[in-house]
Design a protein that fits this description.
Elements: H1 22-25, H2 28-38, E1 42-57, E2 60-72, E3 81-92, H3 97-107, E4 112-123, H4 127-134, H5 142-158, H6 164-172, E5 181-188, E6 192-199, E7 206-212, E8 217-224, H7 231-234, E9 244-255, E10 261-271, E11 278-282, E12 288-293, E13 301-303, E14 317-321, E15 331-340, E16 344-348, E17 351-354, E18 362-363, E19 380-388, E20 392-395, E21 398-405, E22 408-414, E23 425-428, E24 430-436, E25 442-448, H8 453-469, H9 491-495, H10 504-522, E26 529-535, E27 541-543, E28 546-550, H11 557-564, H12 569-585, E29 593-595, H13 602-620, H14 622-637, H15 646-649, H16 666-686, H17 696-708, E30 712-714, H18 716-724, H19 740-746, E31 754-764, E32 767-777, E33 784-793, E34 796-806, E35 809-816, E36 822-824, E37 834-838
Parallel strand pairs: 9-19, 25-26, 26-28, 29-30, 31-37
Antiparallel strand pairs: 1-2, 2-3, 3-4, 4-5, 5-6, 6-7, 7-8, 9-10, 10-15, 11-14, 11-18, 12-15, 13-14, 16-17, 19-22, 20-23, 21-22, 24-25, 27-28, 31-32, 32-35, 33-34, 33-36
Helix pairs in contact: 2-6, 10-12, 12-13, 13-14, 13-16, 14-16
Length: 839
């Protein structure tokens, strides 16, 4: 999956431009429309002095109080642009509590009312008609409005934030209504430029965002469905508004030593709508398309951004123009030919990194969006890889052929038996280790024979420090491991062996063991193989049947200690056992079970976080697992650099929207860390220590979830319904037989309780009487949670049962048949909370 749990990269973007191709010349109307979309001309006869003109879009209202308004020249008979300069006002009052909370978080108020002095409008809806009925257009100064428009459009184009592909779609479509949109760029004094969207092509039609130049990112102030619908209702059918349904791929990908990727893709699809002449796809602009053809071999017009070279770019669209509009249910096969040098990079001798996304055409929306329908469906892949003969290659799917031709090695991989959401590949100079599991699946480790440049740079740094300072301290990641002054750097001898290949057999065993644990909890491993390949840097990605894991995890503990200094046991675990298991579990969370929306992505990332901790418990013992949980808790309750408590920024259900310019790390801490806690708390509440199989209930729940949504997308509500089937009496806190209380608090809401436990132990016959109060703070007054009570008789703790804590204070009075020394309520991190005790 696209790696939200990977390292963050700065986004430095390049302006989009017309791709000069012979194919475009075959559709002169499309070429002319594309030029006009990128360089709109304003009409000197369509300028108006406005007074109190209003545009209403659901709960948002734009008022043009006074000033000058101009319309652009029609494109293919349709006006798509307008510009305003003067005095205007924007108002938005979300109805959803979470969206009000987010607006308050960014602006200090739950409803935004703000003035603007300039506005740009891109639209394919009824905007022109609405403006024409409220004002009179005459001859006027269109040139100054056109310049204002062009200045802002240039800045948007730098970052790939323009709507060029969607505007082309609107200009050429015979049926634009399903994708009608309204986009406003509003220049305010307080916040600079704000962007407002009302887009019928999105499941959540309304969005208010602000672009951060410093962080090269969009801050989502609010985003929600129109018509009073909740996100849960809107995303029940995540593909309902897709223009087409992808059916499958046939890919040929050749990579040479440069490395340059040259390939083609045959994409099978079915149109869902009639009247669509432009189909939008997503493809990295580092791969420049040389032709697009239909099933008869006829060349089609197409447009994509210019190659951004070494800069990351948001505009990853390819707009393909059909000679005739689509009919509903029409089957199409398109062939794309493309090549480029930056989708695969060389990271050492025989070490290559193949980018996971963008190397083949996928579903596209023609604009920057949080909604990616890719993981909500599954497709057949038939992949042929051609690499230099001296290298080995591996891809998602099952290998069905391998041969050598001249200087090339060619392999073929198919997913005919198990359709996949995404596909990936890796190649290089590898040692290959392999192990067959009892289940029949094969685990393979493709480990580079030579260290990558990331590891080599660390070694070089240590060597330079030795040459310069005779044992001086370097300043990079290995700084804390430098040797003492006056002698040789002790790292050098160890760093001579910085080769991931040494750890290949251990990696094979660890991954195989994690699969066996997860099969016990989540159900059978779904693919015929799991291949593991090391990649540079400190992150990883899990693809169906293929893992990319950091080369750091291939180092032994001595090497990691030497490189990174006195790394704690907990951090060592996170780099190794936890990290590998986290990535491995994505075979279930993300691939066996996908997610319906960005709001449900915690079902992948939070579940993988839990899975890594679960494996740590088996691999290193419960204390190590508890340490990981409590570290995630501490990350949630701590303040970030802006002074905000992470948990208070927003609930899990906001997904990637949680990270912003001021709080860039919130998504990972909340969706991963708190998401893992949610699953862990369900596990602890379902655990029965009086049974021979204390986790039978939890395991049955997880297996039913994977079975029910096998190779499908699930929502948070879908998971809740499965969990409710396995509730214990203690979980039925409101007598409804539902878990609304739990999900409303922990997934849809914020708040981490602080419990103060005051108790006394009074001897009573052969036992004791335990009396006390649990005070709850830091959460809303109606917050409720079953809290376990443990009793200590000596060093061992025994769980006595549950106290349902409600409101500010909850008393308890328990008679026990045995003597005890003390009690505890958070002995094994059963509840996400903090605790104080008073005797």
């Amino acid at each position: 999956m696209r790696c939200p749990y990977s390292c963050c990269l700065a986004l430095i973007l390049l302006a989009a431009g017309l791709l000069p191709t012979a194919a475009a010349a075959q559709a002169p109307d499309a070429a002319a429309a594309w030029t006009a979309v990128n360089q709109p001309a304003f009409d000197p006869q369509k300028v108006a002095a406005v007074s109190n003109v209003k545009l209403q879009r659901d709960l948002a209202e734009i008022t043009l109080a006074s000033g000058s308004l101009g319309l652009a020249q029609p494109i293919n008979g349709k006006v798509l642009f307008a510009a305003f300069r003067g005095k205007g006002a924007f108002r938005l009052a979300p109805a959803l509590a979470t969206e009000r909370q987010q607006l308050r978080f960014f602006t200090g108020k739950e409803a935004l009312e703000i003035e603007f002095a300039e506005a740009l409008f891109f639209f394919s809806d009824s905007t022109v008609d609405e403006l024409s009925t409220q004002t009179q257009f005459v001859t006027g100064d269109a040139a100054s409005l056109e310049k204002s428009f062009a200045d802002r459009r240039k800045k948007l184009a730098e970052f790939g934030l323009g709507w060029e592909a969607r505007l082309l779609h609107a200009a050429l479509s015979e049926n634009p209504a399903p994708f009608a949109f309204f986009h406003a760029e509003l220049k305010t004094e307080k916040y600079g430029w704000l962007s407002f969207d009302f887009d019928q092509g999105e499941i959540e039609e309304l969005q208010l965002a602000r672009w951060s130049n410093n962080f090269r990112s969009l801050n989502y102030w609010c985003r929600f469905p129109a018509g009073g619908r909740t996100p849960m209702e809107a995303f029940r059918e995540p593909n309902a508004r897709d223009a087409y349904a992808l059916r499958g791929y046939k890919l040929y990908t050749a990579v040479d030593e440069k490395p340059r990727l040259t390939g083609w893709a045959e994409v099978r699809l079915t149109s869902r709508l009639a009247g669509q002449r432009v189909l939008l796809f997503s493809l990295s602009p580092n791969l420049q398309v040389s032709s697009v053809k239909d099933s008869s071999g006829a060349a089609l017009a197409y447009f994509q951004p210019a190659d951004p070279k070494d800069r990351i770019y948001y505009g990853d669209y390819v707009a393909v123009v059909l000679p005739q509009p689509t009919t509903a249910g029409q089957d199409l096969t398109l062939r794309f030919d493309y090549s480029g040098e930056r989708v695969v990079t060389k990271e050492g001798s025989g070490v290559f990194f193949a980018r996971s996304f963008g190397w083949y055409p996928s579903y596209g929306m023609g604009k920057v969006t949080l909604h990616n329908p890719e993981f909500s469906q599954r497709y057949d892949f038939d992949i042929t890889l051609e690499v230099p003969k001296k290298y080995d290659a591996v891809a998602t799917g099952a290998k069905v052929d391998e041969r050598e031709e001249g200087k090339s090695k060619i392999t073929r991989w198919t997913s005919a038996n198990v359709p996949l959401a995404v596909a990936g590949f890796a190649f290089g100079s590898y040692y290959i280790h392999e192990k067959k599991l009892d289940s029949g699946a094969t685990v393979q480790v493709f480990v580079n024979r030579n260290p990558d440049q990331y590891l080599q740079s660390i070694r070089n740094e240590a060597s330079q420090a030795q040459d310069i300072g005779g044992g001086g301290s370097p300043t990079g990641p290995a700084a804390t491991g430098a040797g003492g002054l006056g002698g040789p750097d002790p790292r050098l001898a160890i760093l001579e062996t910085l080769n991931p290949a040494r750890f290949g057999p251990v990696m094979l065993t660890e991954v195989a063991n994690s699969l066996q644990v997860f099969e016990q909890y989540f159900g059978p491993y779904p693919y015929s193989k799991l291949a593991v390949s090391n990649i540079p840097w400190g992150y990883g990605q899990g693809w169906p049947g293929l893992l990319y894991v950091s080369s750091v995890t291939f180092l032994d503990s001595t090497q990691r200690f030497t490189l990174f200094g006195r790394v704690s046991s907990e951090d060592q675990t996170r780099m190794t056992d936890f990290f590998r298991a986290h990535e491995t579990s994505h075979q279930w969370w993300g691939h066996v079970v996908g997610w319906k929306s960005y709001r449900d992505q915690w079902l992948s990332e939070g579940f993988a976080e839990f899975s890594g901790i679960l494996y740590t418990q088996f691999r290193s013992g419960p204390p190590e697992a508890v340490a990981l949980l409590r570290r995630n808790r501490d990350d949630l309750i701590n303040k970030d650099r802006e002074g905000a408590v992470i948990d208070e920024i927003g609930p899990i259900y906001l997904g990637q929207r949680l990270s912003s310019e001021k709080h860039p790390g919130t998504y990972g801490v909340t969706v991963y860390g708190k998401g893992g806690w949610v699953l862990h708390m369900l596990r602890t509440m379902m655990m029965d220590f009086n049974s021979k199989e204390p986790e039978a209930r939890f395991q049955a729940m997880m297996k039913e979830f994977t079975r029910t949504y096998y190779n499908q997308a699930a929502s948070t509500d879908d998971f809740k319904r499965i969990a409710e089937k396995y509730m214990t009496p203690a979980m039925n806190v409101d007598g409804s037989g539902k878990l609304d209380w739990f999900f409303n608090q922990w997934v849809y809401g914020t708040g981490i309780p602080r419990y103060t436990v005051k108790y006394s132990i009074t001897p009573q016959g052969s036992g004791v009487r335990l009396q006390g109060i649990i005070r709850q703070s830091g959460v809303p007054e109606n917050f409720v949670m079953p809290v376990p009570i443990y009793a200590y008789a000596g060093p061992r703790a025994q769980r006595l049962g549950w106290v349902t804590v409600r409101g500010a204070e909850t008393p308890f009075d328990i008679e026990l048949p045995m003597k005890i020394d003390k009690i505890g309520i958070d002995e094994w991190a059963d509840v996400l909370c903090t605790v104080d005790y008073q005797r």
